[in-house]
Amino acid sequence: MSALEDDVRTATSVDETTDAAAHAAWTPPVHLGALPLHLRERAEQLLADQRESIRNLEELYRETGRHLAAVRSVPRQADGRSVYLDVTG
To answer: Which runs of consecutive H residues, i.e. helices, occur in 1-89?
Structure first.
């Protein structure tokens, strides 16, 4: 498996221990010529995996925005008093 394919697999299975920054810097090689026919299916799968990763990231971005909007909608306590009421003691 190539490093690029490995990076896509890692990006699509991100968890708390994954260092996404380590996979962010990639420079495409130059002067390679045309893609050999025997690699076409592999390249198409890689492209499909990358597109799926983009869709997942876009959904996570929207979800994070919704969460942030919900947090921002909570009014701040202006006077510093407790917002809890002890009804048992």
So the answer is: 3-12, 40-73
